[in-house]
Amino acid sequence: MKFEFTEEHQALRSLIAGVCEQQADPRACYDGQSMIDTRLWSVLCSAGVVGVGVPEAYEGGGGGPVEQVIIAEELGRAVAAVPFSEHAAAAETVALLGSEEQRKRLLFPLARGEAVAGIVLPTPANLKAVEAHRDGARWRLSGHIPLIPNAGAATALLVPAHEDGQVRWLVTEAAQVSALPTVDRTRPAAAAEFGDADAELLSGTDISERPGELLMTLAAAEAAGAAASALQTTARYTTERHQFGLPIGTFQAVKHRLADMLVAVENARSAVYGAAWALAEGETAALSASLAQAVATGNAVAVVSDAVQLHGGIGVTWECDLHLYLRRVKALEATYGSPSTHRGRIADSLLDR
Amino acid sequence: MKFEFTEEHQALRSLIAGVCEQQADPRACYDGQSMIDTRLWSVLCSAGVVGVGVPEAYEGGGGGPVEQVIIAEELGRAVAAVPFSEHAAAAETVALLGSEEQRKRLLFPLARGEAVAGIVLPTPANLKAVEAHRDGARWRLSGHIPLIPNAGAATALLVPAHEDGQVRWLVTEAAQVSALPTVDRTRPAAAAEFGDADAELLSGTDISERPGELLMTLAAAEAAGAAASALQTTARYTTERHQFGLPIGTFQAVKHRLADMLVAVENARSAVYGAAWALAEGETAALSASLAQAVATGNAVAVVSDAVQLHGGIGVTWECDLHLYLRRVKALEATYGSPSTHRGRIADSLLDR
Amino acid sequence: MQQETLAPSGLGELDIDLSEDDAAFAEEWMTWLDTHLPAMHEKLADAGRDADKQALARDWQSQMAAGGWAAITWPLEFGGRAATARQQLIFYLTSAERRVPPLAGRIGINLCGPTLIAHGTSEQQQRFLPPMLDGRHVWCQGFSEPGAGSDLASLRTRGVVDGDSLVITGQKIWTSGAQYADWMFALVRTDPDAPKRRGISFVLVPMTANGIEVRPIRQISGDAGFNEVFLDEVRVPLTNVIGELNGGWNVTRTTLANERAILFMGQQMALTATLRKAITMAKVADPQGVRAADDPHFRDRIAQAWIDVELVRLNGMRNLARVLAGKEPGPEGAMSKLFGQHVEQKLHELALDLGGEFAILDRGAPDAPNRGKWALGWLRTRASTIGGGTSEIQRNVLAERILGQPRDPWADA
Amino acid sequence: MQQETLAPSGLGELDIDLSEDDAAFAEEWMTWLDTHLPAMHEKLADAGRDADKQALARDWQSQMAAGGWAAITWPLEFGGRAATARQQLIFYLTSAERRVPPLAGRIGINLCGPTLIAHGTSEQQQRFLPPMLDGRHVWCQGFSEPGAGSDLASLRTRGVVDGDSLVITGQKIWTSGAQYADWMFALVRTDPDAPKRRGISFVLVPMTANGIEVRPIRQISGDAGFNEVFLDEVRVPLTNVIGELNGGWNVTRTTLANERAILFMGQQMALTATLRKAITMAKVADPQGVRAADDPHFRDRIAQAWIDVELVRLNGMRNLARVLAGKEPGPEGAMSKLFGQHVEQKLHELALDLGGEFAILDRGAPDAPNRGKWALGWLRTRASTIGGGTSEIQRNVLAERILGQPRDPWADA
Question: Which tens digits make up the pLDDT trace of C222-267?
């Protein structure tokens, strides 16, 4: 039934948690100039995690949104510096809209993680910024996108464009992708310059909002995971740190803040799981995805901010990992529509029919 | 200088506090069918409080917004069931816009409190609802106002109406005023039916927003006073009520809520005093009055709600006076523009020039 | 889109497989309701005074008991059905959907009955359960005291053993339904020298006994659903003590966690109904032509309210999935009460606020929003975060039990 | 309307009468600034590295001291002006208006100086105050320790008397400016057996002494304004102890309340400047053509931010009016710190959020809002509610001192 995590789900969760614990090194993106946690990405590729949502016929895991959400949540817990969510949404787009030939050609490298995919969402601004022209059997893209989230390491881009009055999706490896410095360096953004870049058109015309909904849900799962981890770290810290001769977790001001953080974290997870199951069942998931975004990213910012506060002075040092979480959840909150934007969409659907 | 309360101000505050402590009986409006705390009103009349803002030439106190705010705050502290704020704003309108003859005739009974005045604010809806026609030297009003705050006991009404493209103010004693049952029975509202009611036109054409700004400031002062009183009661209760062998004020969860209530109360008072001094100096006080409303009424609802919570079970009984405060501050919040409405006005002025 | 998302959670929403037994259970219950419910709805529509309603609630309970529906979680031997979690779920969902009236004696059936079944002697079970089941005896709960709110273990109502009797003196408060109750199950301090939680007994007290006085407590809404119960040398036989003398603290801990996991459905449906009504009214202009649905501030709060109610539902579903899979309830269950009571309070404040300046009008004013019911609901729900464990206590519990924080230094070990 | 309300609070805003003395003071200060300030502004504009800025700040302090402006609250005999509250106010307002650079040694002048003046011996005053005043000696404060944050009295840095010396071993943390300081005033435990607050001494320690090591602490913004200071058997003469040996707790309590009442002006001006810049940018379209000023959510938050900043100003004015009238600071002063630190934090979060999706861009990205300064400000102000007493401690203080609640059971009497 819905919301029941099977033993396989639990095993997947443990797998990712274990891999992250041993391999994840988000600091690599702060200390060096790396755009991705290369070692973690390759371990995830070997374990078949990167292509979990790709159909088995194309060497993927044949999993769905529930499995992807579990992975994104665990990666969020570790502030992992890998573009899993965007890559998964891009692969989903190819799987949904590619011809059989395109799927065969494009999905294998995506499933193996040899190609790292970024995705441009079909917002009005993005659709206005890029134009597609036919060029024989191929296509050419022109224009400039100033900001593509978490595409700093992308070698391929999924790009939507107007064609014949419809929104169609194109794949290009020829865009000039320049990484941009970001507050959260584990999700480096990029700008893309399409100087008549070679591209191919995905054959499907059945335009679906699903790539965006999946991406929003996975990004929300990252936020929920980051919040859960910050809460866990903090709840341990408050039993260890003493003031006035007692663990500070003894003080109600601390306890009650922790309790509110717990409510925020569990609400974030519930919202994310709700969206995952809605997507898994193929329902329209627009409201569920907005719910997940509105709750998970907003709550995560509140929870991690509280975690910093409860850590006191140590919480505002570079050395303490909490700021990696703070930057991450703030970036997630701003990236795919702010909580208020998503509440606006929900209000439109409740009030303007 | 600004914000400096003189010894005279302190004496006025003590006077009102003393009168309220001995005479105020807000329960009278709950238990009986009274629309006003008659005894308190007559004491306030005798003490010259009701006409404090009326110029001395007309038997008034010659005071200004600062004195009126002090009175409204103290009346709010006692949930006093007297329409001081509306009466004062009505009298102010006559003093501002009446001819010398009108002032002489109309201000004496208002200063003495023999007439109880209500006021209809010149909102677009109200201006649309009432029409004024000349009838010789007098005027006639027709139309229906469904809701006039705190006018349940009014014998005279100040009514704005369009005349020759301008907003003008009229005074009538002939409207059919019907009191309406209200959640806060100490501020009973009324509906008014103007069946060609006899009225007179105030001669001044220099239309000013001042009556509304004064009224908003005084209503905000009532809210600030109510909040301050609820905080005081609660801070005493938490040192007396024991749980787990200790006064509950020992527990940080209680302490910290009290501290936040204190911040909310002092902010409310600062906002109200700011508006009072702005009015006293004759500046445009629209933003200051909106600030006072937005902060004082919203904060008062939060503070009194917290006061109920900290009282536990006893706080939700009829017998405990807190619900009189809760009803009062909620009514004040809804009455002259909600906090969000006032924030909207502030935003307009900051962003839309 | 709205229709799907605002619909009350029906059975389909749960997406559970029904076994043959469950399907038969559902079928029997529906058939029984078809036969009995319409007449009761008619009678209730005609009932005026509270006393009439109380009599009807007892009547309904006797019908439900006769059909075997009054206490479906009780074992078969006591007139229950030993219902599985899935069957309870079906029962609660359909009860809400079909507006099945509440039972007069639900406090006894839900709280005292399971305690008697777990801790009572065979004689006690034989004596108390049958009239509890069919509504002849309506029960109230005597736990809270004026000095013992959040700190239940500090209660002071005394029981002194005198021969084979217990003589009880003290005062209980917040006793819901005491004015109609035949019996009260109460916590009484029977050993004043023992540490706080020891020395407490769980005692059954007839409300008709000499020395009992019930005084209603009027709430801020004007309702009087709660009472104070004064006990002045009330004498009950020692056979009315459940479990060991002085062992009452353990008796009360009989956990109702699984039941709670399912009861959330009722809460969520009530919230959904309030929200839906609020949304409907937000789209209608007030007497001055103002529509709350046009105000960005209200649009945002309405969206947040929808989110909050959805979260109550999603939390409940997560917890339910665990319980139905035979696992322990998770943290999302433990936090549901804290979050749910805030959501209820906030939602009613929103409903009131939507009225704008007309929100100040009470019942009887022609323009009062929702005929004054929003104001009443707002006043009533001010107690949501106090009754049944304050939010402060809930937060302590969450921090200590789920997050492993140290207990308050002043709390008992 | 905006221009009036967003204008920084100038002298006119205060509406105070200036006495002849005050007017002369203002006149002298303005004249001095006209002579000295432009050159310093030019030098600062050219300065690149932190070390250059530090040298300029010392140079500026020596100029200010020569003019008698470095420590206007100090008594005349120590090079101050014994400035009245009104004069301080004039001084701070004009300093902010004319962007007078901060002094290198402001920590010593504001915190250590008044303590020496109140509690030091004449010899100590003669020895330490002159170089503190003119910038030859820059001071840092050694109070916090890793194990003693909110609970200052539990500090563990030990001082052992050895002949006429004190030998100090331990660790200080959050020591602002230690990397540039010549001296540190520190709290040291000199009697380990005495109750917590007894047995602490206030000691002056040269940063050049053997056994001192300074390690910078990098903050989440990447800045390194704070330091850890390790002390390993650092030997100072007993004549460096201020007040009684073991009497340091009282020495530290030298109150700065009146000074704080005026310092709010600087805080409010910084907030106003941030708000004004945020509003200006909200009216400009981002690279995708989106204007935050068109978003109802941001409109509401901007209005609230204006309200918050106004409240900081109004609270400060109320308190100032009391202080200028010779009264004790009121509760609005005590709560200003708690409220002000939250306002600062919220305002910077708003400024960041206004950037929408572009808010994630950092310095160096062409489209980074405010060239990445909002992001930096947001990160820096995460410490606003922690440094100088956490919000939790502030709330305790308010509840206990202003609202008369009992102290925490674990706090010292």
Answer: 888 899 999 999 999 999 999 999 998 888 865 444 456 556 667 7
Are both B175 and B246 inside the same structural domain? no
Q: What is the pLDDT of residues B241-254, one digit of tens each?
A: 999 889 999 999 99
Q: Do residues A329 and A237 share a domain?
A: yes
Residues A321, A216 share a domain: yes
Global pTM reads: 0.93
Partner residues linked to C334 by β-bridges = none
Lowest mean pLDDT across B198-207, C236-245, C329-338: C329-338
Q: Are A315 and D386 in contact (CB under 8 A)?
A: yes
ipTM of the complex: 0.94
Q: What is the pLDDT of residues A208-239, one digit of tens each?
A: 789 999 999 999 999 999 999 999 999 999 99
Q: Which fold has domain C2-104?
A: Butyryl-Coa Dehydrogenase, subunit A; domain 1 (1.10.540)
- B214 shares a domain with B327: yes
- From B125, B254, B313, residue closest to C174, measured CB to CB: B313
Q: Are residues B245 and B319 in the same domain?
A: yes
Yes or no, beta carbons of C306 and A346 under 8 Å apart: yes
* Distance in angstroms (rounded) separating the CA atoms of residues C318 and B323: 38
Contact A270 C315 (CB under 8 A): yes
Out of D296, D409, D410, whose CB is closest to C296? D296
**SS3 label, residue B156:** strand
CB atoms B262 and D311 under 8 Å: no
**pLDDT (tens digit, 9 = 90+) per residue, A256-269?**
999 999 999 999 99
CATH of domain D139-246: 2.40.110.10
Q: Are D169 and D188 in contact (CB under 8 A)?
A: no
Closest Cα in chain B, distance from residue D385 (Å)? 14
> For this structure, is C259 an active site residue?
yes
Q: How far, in whole angstroms, is CA A128 from its chain's centroid?
A: 24
pLDDT of amino acid B83: 98
Average pLDDT, chain C: 88
Whether B1 is covered by a domain: the verdict is no
Which residues of A fall within a CB distance of 8 Å from B253? 252-253, 255-256
Q: Which residue has the tokens 């009324």?
A: B190
B271 and D CB contact within 8 Å: yes
Domain range for B16: 7-112
Q: Is B147 helix (H, G, I), strand (E, B) or coil?
A: strand
Q: What is the pLDDT of residue A311?
A: 96
The residues of chain D scoring below 70 in pLDDT are: 1-18, 253-265, 329-334, 412-413
**How many domains would you assign to chain A?**
3
**C-alpha to C-alpha distance for B53 and B41, rounded to whole angstroms:** 16
Q: How far apart are CA C205 and CA C183, in angstroms?
A: 6
Last residue in a domain, options A85, A112, A139: A112
D173 to chain A: which residues are within 8 Å by CB? 313
Please report the pLDDT score of residue C390 as a whole number.
85
Contact residues on chain D for C296, CB-CB shorter than 8 A: 296-297, 299-300
- Alpha carbon of C84: minimum distance to chain A alpha carbons (Å): 16
Residue B308 within a domain:
yes
- Count Cβ atoms below 10 Å from residue C146 Cβ, excluding itself: 15
**Considering Cα of D138, then D144, then D150, then D155, what sign does the dihedral take?**
negative
Q: Is it the case that residue A68 has pLDDT exceeding 90?
A: yes
Given CB atoms, is C294 within the 8 Å cutoff of chain D?
A: no
| CATH code at position B107 | 1.10.540.10
Domain C261-401, classified CATH 2.60.120.400, yes or no: no
The answer, for B25 touching chain C at a CB cutoff of 8 Å, is no
Average pLDDT (B279-290) is 88
By the 8 A CB rule, do D118 and D165 touch?
no
Q: Which residues of C touch D409 (CB under 8 A)?
A: 409-410
Q: Which residue has the higher pLDDT, D250 or B197?
A: B197
Q: How far apart are CA B324 and CA B331, in angstroms?
A: 11
Share of chain C above pLDDT 70, in %: 90
Domain membership of residue A219 (yes or no) is: yes
